[in-house]
Amino acid sequence: xxxxxxxxxxxxxxxxxxxxxxxxxxxxxxxxxxxxxxxxxxxxxxxxxxxxxxxxxxxxxxxxxxxxxxxxxxxxxxxxxxxxxxxxxxxxxxxxxxxxxxxxxxxxxxxxxxxxxxxxxxxxxxxxxxxxxxxxxxxxxxxxxxxxxxxxxxxxxxxxxxxxxxxxxxxxxxxxxxxxxxxxxxxxxxxxxxxxxxxxxxxxxxxxxxxxxxxxxxxxxxxxxxxxxxxxx
Length: 233
Hints:
48% of the residues lie in helices and 21% in strands. It has 233 residues and is α/β, with parallel strands linked by helices. It has a single domain, classed as Rossmann fold (3-Layer(aba) Sandwich). A seven-stranded mixed sheet has the order 3-2-1-4-5-7-6, with helices on both faces. Helix 5 links the parallel strand 2 (73-78) and strand 3 (99-103). Helix 2 packs antiparallel against helix 7, helix 3 crosses helix 4 and helix 7 (159-181) packs antiparallel against helix 8. The longest helix is centred in the C-terminal third of the chain and has 23 residues, at 159-181. 39% of the residues are buried. The model has no long low-confidence stretch (mean pLDDT 90).
């Protein structure tokens, strides 16, 4: 695992934490909320379930889960302290005993085997310093029969949509993100990693090699984002 990369990414997200939610919803025109809702619905959450929200960021996935299923417990896990602080401020509408904030990297999740009933990762696996190791940790800490939902941008989309998406990132997201967040490098990094990440087929192969059963893969918004529904047999 590249610890320097993990620290650099965490510092980057710390630097843009105060504007992250605003820009995230603005750039996606609010469509990201629909993607998150679809991911949470796939988990079939029930009261008493314990959910790991890995790469939790500012907590939107965990909050969506709490809105959908009463009586669940969530662990918001992320390497960026400032992002978790924002998540904590947003989660104050929840009973304090229903969620927990933990700081750390995906490659070393500090929980025993088979701890969680389900997990989510929303637009975070491309930031793992070691994709295979991080995914193995998700598998290890998930209970047998448990379900995971991974949302990520994948580059295998139609040529027309890909050109439009690349133009949007280059002409809109990067300059606007740099202006509002005051961190040009951060939005350059985000744009670069979106375009250079693994394809859907490559990710499905990796998940299967680790031991997951790939129950379903769903494309959103003409292939801009992908939702992977995984089960631990």
